[in-house]
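ok so i was messing around last nite and threw this chain in just to see what happens. nothing serious, just curious
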Amino acid sequence: MSIVTELILNADSEARYPAPKELRIFQDFLKTGEQRIRIARLLAENEQRIVQNGSARFWERVPVTPSNSGNPRKTASCQRDQGWYIRLIAYSILAGSEKPLEEIGTVGIKEMYNSLEIPLRNIVECMRCLKEEAVLLMSPEDAAEVVPYFDLIIRSLS
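result:
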């Protein structure tokens, strides 16, 4: 859900117009639109690069892991999931809200990886590596917008 949808639904649930404070939030959201689009585009255009470099960084830190087992199917599956998280972060940045990431990407995340017998500490470290790679491609201002979304995933796994 985007910040705009949230503002409207909150006001509508109380049968009122958005309050001045809510309108300021909406204005601020609009002011950051170009930045959010730029970041989402950068993530989309560099997803493969972020995943490839992030995986290499991860394998240096954690060499014994299913994604680095020599089984191309496992590697592809792990990297597909990594790309999926990059995409969810882009959605959240566009929405100006953590909700897409929370609702699609973090609900049941621990249970899923535990059921697959993938150590959570590995996924946490992998997300740190992806975050580091994504940040390398961005200005400090853009990186400051992206980091909290990676941190949300990391917190969800901890």
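not much to say yet. The two ends are 25 Å apart (CA to CA).
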